[in-house]
Amino acid sequence: MTRVTKPTIIVKRPLSAQQIWGRIGIYAFLGGLALFFFLPAYVMLVTSFKGMDEIRLGHIFTLPQQFSFDAWVKAWTSACTGLDCTGLRVGFWNSVKIVVPSMTLSILLGAINGYALSFWKVKGANVLFACLLLGSFIPYQVFIYPLVRVYAQAGIYGSLPAIVLTHIIFGMPVMTLLFRNYYSGLPVELFKAARVDGAGFWKIFFAIILPMSAPITIVAVIMQVTAIWNDFLLGLVFAGRENLPMTVQLNNIVNTTTGERAYNVNMAATMLTSLVPLVVYLVSGRWFVRGIASGAVKG
Q1: Which residues pair with 81 in a beta bridge?
Q2: Which residues pair with 84 in a beta bridge?
Q3: Spatial separation of the C-alpha atoms in residues 241 and 159, rounded to whole Å
Q4: Phi, psi dihedral angles at 84 (to 5 degrees)
């Protein structure tokens, strides 16, 4: 005889007047904060769609009377950075060439380090982990001059390998910390069972540990893509003139003025530069929270 379970009826109590006004206050506060932080983005967006005549004669907050994508096209294809008028597209592809290898190698090396420091209790592992953790809090400026001298001696200063290697070096402490804390939460019995079956260090890492690292890998990808894409200082110092990233190109466009300053082009160039991190946040924000909750903050 099948037993039928009666559905549970949840009775909601009506809110008191104090609770209603409390919620109204919270929503009003959050709405005000959202409006405050969105206001600069609104000004940049509407200005990028206006012509210069409308910008000069109109108000900064008014919507454009005639929408135009001319400023976006000019920012991408023909905006001038000094004597070079090729727009942001060159800097965009330079940033792609920098971000892809820097992100991939720093995450892979960080995962290997985190795996070694969490499961393989080698001699001095705690000291090495403390040094890596300390390295994530040292300002970049401390390392710039020594790195310039080392790269100059090696003959790679001002090149693509130099800026990629720099981002890998500066990304290693944080990546190691993330993966080490995540792997520390995995069951040790899984690792011991693999050892009993004859699997070695690399076999366990690539066949067992790495496939289980999807949540924390997504967190690492988001952090590295946004950090490397938004970098200005390291790209300016180490990339060289032929590999300047998009942020440096944006600075050159905004500060290069011949005659009237083109505010609409500057705003469009700024929006184009911020599109990649914005898309990454919007697409992967849900997985970022899940990855953080699954181990990124443990340890």
Answers
A1: 84
A2: 81
A3: 8
A4: -95, 120
Crossing angle of helices 214-229 and 160-184, in 10° steps, is 150
Question: 283 or 125, which is more confident?
Answer: 283
CA distance 11 to 190: 46
Question: Dihedral of the CA atoms 101, 104, 108, 109 (nearest 10)?
Answer: 40
- Which tens digit of pLDDT belongs to each residue from 167-195? 999 888 889 888 888 888 888 788 788 88
Give a three-class secondary structure readout of 229-257. Answer: HCCCHHHHHHCCHHHCCHHHHHHHHHHCC
- As given in the structure block, the two tokens for residue 99 are 């971000």
The pLDDT tens digits of the residues spanning 246-273 come to 999 898 888 876 667 888 899 999 999 9
Which residue in the block uniquely carries the two structure tokens 């693999």?
Answer: 194
Is the Cβ–Cβ distance between 292 and 178 less than 8 Å? no
Do the beta carbons of residue 274 and residue 219 sit within 8 Å?
no
pTM for the model stands at 0.81
HSE-up of residue 148 (Cα within 13 Å, Cβ side) = 12
Which of 265, 215, 210 has the alpha carbon at shortest distance from 87? 265
Give the pair of three-digit tokens for residue 203: 């076999």
Whose tokens are 């992100």? That residue is 103
